[in-house]
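Below: protein 1.
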Amino acid sequence: MMGVALVLGAVVGSFLNVVVVRIPRGQSLVRPPSHCGVCGKPIRWFDNIPLLSFLWLRGRCRLCQTRISWRYPVIEATTAILFALAAPRVGWGVELVGAWLFVAVLVAIAAIDLEHQVIPDSISLPAIAAGLALSFVTPSRVWVDSLLGITVGAGIPFAVIILSRGGMGGGDMRLGALIGAFLGWQLALLSLFMAVLLGGVVATALLVAGRKGRKDRIPFGPFLAGSGVICLLWGNALLGWYWSSFTP
């Protein structure tokens, strides 16, 4: 079954590459079919197999020999690994469908925010609705928890936006709401806390290394998305450890 999760994750990752390229440009996800971004020639099915085709072609277009971005195999491999990790943690059932959808959305949002410094509403808003809808059919979470998760996940970034006059963006606020819709308010709160820690560590490292200046913008979405994945997989264990260690 783990093999099924890996293969399905790689296939979904291949589709996410289309999402990452086309959604920020306002292009259709269906038309035209997959094609080389340089020569424009359609990509044949045997050159579009996740991960394997990149290796066979040695990272180049078969027709024009243009280098293929490493983003393609990285997203495919990342999605495959996360799908495989989620399966035993969540269990094989309806909740796994929601977990896989959650992972796919977060991978796409993180990649887009890294490249374009934007979190598209066309991804986050439908995902929020999907997370809330799934709370009505999953046994481990009730809709009230999902609704509270949306409130907490969006409310804290909204407060930061108001108090800091732009310390976060509206896309980050909607991403927080998305995480809350799927994970509930406690894990949404934990995700926000972890994202701030991760973002602070990485930002400090980039400043010290001279890769970024104090006024350079560092997208927060990837940190929030990464924290959301961590909380999906290990969030309840982290909360259990915290309560057992720091509360009487």
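Below: protein 2.
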Amino acid sequence: MKKAAIMWLAILSLGVPGFGKTHKVKKVGEYPNFAAVSADGRRAYVTSFGTGELLELDLAKKAVTRAVTVGVSPLGVTLAEQDRLALVACKDSGTVVVVDTASFRVESSIKVTGSPNAVAVGSRGYRAYVTDFGRTRDGLLHVIDLREREVVATLRMGMSPIALAVGPVNEMVYVVNGGSNEVWIVDPERPSVVGRITVGDAPDGIAITPDGKRIFVSNSRSDSLSVIDAESQSVLVTIPVGRMPFGVAVSPDGRRVFVVNTASRTVSMLPADLSSIQAKTFKVDKGPVGVQVLPDNRTILVVNEQSHTVMLIQTF
């Protein structure tokens, strides 16, 4: 555990025009990427790509409190077993590392092939799904049995699968293939690909409403957000956002969607029911990549990779 990673950090409080108070946590590892927030909203877990660590943030104290080394180049992170476990996809280690969030120690390391970059857990709780970017070949989707801590199925995906989300009702897995500009739908019970949806240019991020009916996909080269109807498996509308949109999140109440625009250094906010397609946009730090919405439905957590910061922003 690195001493620098667990020191109490300076916090800046500032106003964002049109929004509430913002707290900035500085020096959050090196090149932090993605985050997962506990169900009670008290803690966030952030991957530090540069130091190979998973960091725990106390959201009341606005500080990093613990760190654990997980592997080389950690990216995606998600929580499982009622937040008892954190799963971390380590791209250059070729592993998914399981961290006990109580002891904050590595419980196990699951070997997968290639370059794992995103991980999600199904609503039933015993399966995890991991995308393998593939580098110079088509990528893969690995299905992990969390009870046995092993890969039980691997499916060949399209070009550069970079993100994924699991339907909260039917547990269908939606995989974003950045190279082919598609979202592939996987039925994990077969397991097989059962559908493909064409979206914008170079899709990067994905999020689903809690009822599983609507899917949002950010398209980094077309600077847009594709809104998909899950039942018809078709794009309802494509909405312009900022430059190079990446991370996407839907509020727990399903009312709003947030999109991180990396090149614009902004976050766009839209109503999930599309009652308006005019986004409200506000500035954040340099290099924003990840976004999460806290259980209060109004506070968002933004991870800024190039600034090595995390921002907590109240929205209305």
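Residues 159 and 179 are 5 Å apart (CA to CA).
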